[in-house]
Design brief:
This protein has 78 residues and is mostly helical. The chain has helices at residues 2-12, 20-32, 35-76.
Length: 78
């Protein structure tokens, strides 16, 4: 089962959309920050992204388990 979960997260965890607005805002912000500020900002963004990724995986895992339990209850009564 771990292989299935890993495959699903590898296929769907990465955002494929590339935002032009985000790219332009990052370039504009990057021009006005010192090297230390850029490093700090990237660290904050990385931590926030990690929190979002962990929450998404936890939600997926809980939903998947609930779906399996629901399916078991429905089909075990037949």
């Amino acid at each position: 089962m771990n292989n299935i979960l890993q495959k699903i997260t590898e296929d769907y965890a990465v955002c494929q959309k590339n935002s032009k607005t985000l790219r332009l805002n990052c370039m504009q912000l990057g021009r006005g920050l010192s090297a230390h500020d850029k490093k700090l900002l990237l660290s904050i963004i990385d931590e926030k992204d990690l929190m979002i990724e962990e929450a998404a995986f936890d939600n997926f895992e809980k939903g998947f388990c609930a779906g399996i339990q629901f399916a078991f209850e429905v089909f075990s009564k037949r």
